[in-house]
Amino acid sequence: MTYNELKEALYLFGFHENDLLSIKRIKQRHRSLARKAHPDLHKNADPERMRKLNEAARIIMDYVQSYRFSFSAEEFYRQIPEEHLRHQYSWDPIWAGQLEEK
Question: Whole-prediction pTM value?
Answer without folding.
Answer: 0.64
